[in-house]
TrEMBL record:
Is required not only for elongation of protein synthesis but also for the initiation of all mRNA translation through initiator tRNA(fMet) aminoacylation. Zn(2+) binds at C149, C152, C162, C165. This is Methionine--tRNA ligase. Pfam families: Anticodon_3 (PF19303), tRNA-synt_1g (PF09334), tRNA_bind (PF01588). ATP binds at T336. The keyword ATP-binding applies. Its cofactor is Zn(2+). Residues 579-680 form the TRNA-binding domain. One of its GO terms (molecular function) is metal ion binding. PROSITE patterns: AA_TRNA_LIGASE_I, TRBD.
Amino acid sequence: MKQAGDFKRTLVTTALPYANGPVHIGHLAGVYVPADIYVRYLRLKKEDVVLIGGSDEHGVPITLKAKNEGITPQDVVDKFHGIIKDSFEKFGISFDVYSRTTSKTHYETASEFFRTLYDKGEFIEKESEQYYDEEAKQFLADRYITGTCPHCKSEGAYGDQCESCGTSLNATDLIDPRSVVSGSKPVIKTTKHWYLPLDKHEPFLKEWILDGHKEWKSNVYGQCKSWIDLGLQPRAVSRDLDWGVPVPVEGADGKVLYVWFDAPIGYISATKELTPEWEKYWKDEDTRMLHFIGKDNIVFHCIVFPSMLKAEGSYILPENVPANEFLNLEGDKISTSRNWAVWLHEYLVDFKDKQDVLRYTLTANAPETKDNDFTWKDFQARNNNELVAILGNFVNRAIVLTHKYYDGVVPAQCELTDYDKETLNEIPVLVKKVEDALDNFKFREAVKEAINLARLGNKYLADTEPWKLIKTDAERVKTIMNIALQITANVSILIEPFLPFTAQKMQSMLNLGGLTWVDCGKIDFLSAGHQVNKPELLFEKIEDETIQIQLDKLQQTKEANEAANKTAAPAKENIEFDDFVKMDIRVGTILEAEKVAKTKKLLQLKVDTGIDQRTVVSGIAEFFKPEDIIGKQVSILVNLAPRSIRGIESQGMILMAEDANGKLEFVSPANAVKPGSEVR
């Protein structure tokens, strides 16, 4: 088996984000930050590497969103492709090309790929029964069918999954299925599709993955083994839909390539757009291909896409698929449908110029081997206690003291002490640790060791105390400051893959450029007499108030979700009509209102009922100020027996409506009526 160093070039692909919404921190932590770190690392090593990305713009969720908003699917993907691409650029994800699956090149590439497999006889054709909407005159994809879940009995379950209990479903499992398109009850109808016979490729996959790639991450290898051991089945590569790449064979009207088949071909079409030499990245055995994805895409990139490539015959296969697990948010699963997410485009506004703070937090807490949790408090702590207190503090000390003592001119090293040598010898050790971790896709470990070099610099300055020594041994301080600056230069290289904006600032302050990974470990970056520039603040402390704003935003989302999902209380037991007519409900006008002393909830009201003016005690003080409800018309039960509340005799009951959030609203006539009017 080839090792990484045996290849001439590296092709890195990232899962195509779905263009029906923006990207969030879960996407970043799982796919895009680790991919960008790895590619930046290889570029620093002067290796031939390309980073390929793009938007996945086909599929049913996009057509559903378009239908709900009364726009076209193209309108949807144009909007979100723009938002996603802009967010990635501003966040520093350094794609060589960021394309889209609605491009002309992609349509041609996907059609050609399908046709090649079709002409080689690599597909099987078979008929299946599928739901059909007779009113809309179209077959229905699973997401176009809703009904009652057979497991939890929740209404509104989709044909592929119940959102309430999470159970995977077949559309035919639903109770009382309905078409999302017309609302009518669908019928079963026969349709023809093409299938990729994965079972045919099972022997190859066993040998290639289970025997040949035992070095893959355990979560990736384990999921592949589980699928293969269960036995693979043919998988449809087409579906009945009017949005997507048309199936390029005769008699396939109204059918498009299934999005799972279409999307990974987007890596190939994007590379075609990048370079006319695209084949050397896809068909040359000297190319190493890596797929960066989340765990929900493991099967597609390790079993399905390789089977497609193998069937085509001229493409290389991935050498590694370093998939991550999922990132949760404040203890709950990130969900785009519930708006439970930190959206990248919003973060870039709320935390201007703090891209590296989020990159650092997501890397230090990356879900590499298990699901992990992002919390705003951890984000704040990592910024304040690590980026500010360790990295920022060290760099600031080194540059500030150089300007204070030497007007920004690098002093010469004099005789080195044992402690100086010990410190300098630690630099290549840490560089090797970072390198080994990156080579093995262990990004959490890599960023920790990179920051440890700044810790080393902090410790060196704290131990040598040049700010004290300058008064008694100025010559010794020159050596100390020279070493501190050499460490700073090394740090600027080590952190560049993780914190590119910070590394750029550091090298600008040091007046250095063109540094590469080969330079790591050097202790003579800055020669005596070199001029360094004025210090800039790399990071600033994030205060509790800033974090609370984000926590409040999430709390509002949580409350909105709870309100949206709250169902009306079931009806009480039936009563007889004679019981109902005993109640005398009138329209009254509030004349006076005041708080009841020593209570939070009670207001004492004087109400003109048209019959009389009477006192009513009502538990509405949390929702209404007394002065705001004078003159308000309300519904009042006037024949309720009086009762004493906090020593006040209450003569009736004001009728209120309670919304899903527990807020009370008056039950009032739409237009003013005479007090005493009966409510019937």
